[in-house]
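Closing statement on the 5-O-phosphono-beta-D-ribofuranosylamine sub-project.
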Amino acid sequence: MNRRLAVLISGRGSNLQSIIDAIGTRELDATIAVVVSNRSDAPGLLRAREAGIEALCLDHRAYPDRTTYDTAIVELLKARDVGLVCLAGFMRLVREPLLQAFPNAILNIHPSLLPAFPGVDAQAQALVHGVKVSGATVHLVTGELDNGPIIAQAAVPVLDDDTRDSLAARILIEEHKLYPEAIRTMLDGGWRVEGRRFLLRQP
Ligand code: GRF
């Protein structure tokens, strides 16, 4: 598989950093071809530039609709020969142009054990619901929000004295391990998707 990644962000970029670091330590054999943010003030853009990675802002407000915006992203990624698109805190729904251009090649990370608590502030949702275990999920992206075949998950306990932030911090530690591992799984190949199931080849 083409090991050139694009990482799409909207903010902090700590998951982007974990991917940069995993490539740096050679745990992950890949290249980040480009980082794209829809917000010019995303701190993740600075992380990318500090690592010598091309980092661009494509402001969605400059485009008339989501489809036009996604078409612009596709052109940008194709021009850089990207093989795998990693959403890392990218706060935009992905539309057909991107999905068609990268079939089964767009990943997202979400801070809950999907299908529990899709959407915004999954950590607060988990706390309010009273679950005893939550975690992180990396999944293939489909047209539906936080709903695609699950590549990998990691669980963490929810403690009685947790706040939204303490739970988010515990989950984030797992996210930073899980995302590079899931990307490696994708790039190593030998997987298939059957219905909703992401399956690895039998040894
Ligand atoms: C993470 O919690 C991720 O799971 C969610 O958005 C957050 C992004 O954080 N999709 P960061 O920008 O990677 O630090």
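Residues 9, 11-15, 44, 88-89, 109-111, 172, 175 surround 5-O-phosphono-beta-D-ribofuranosylamine (CB under 6 Å). With this model delivered, the sub-project is considered complete and its resources will be redirected to Aim 3.
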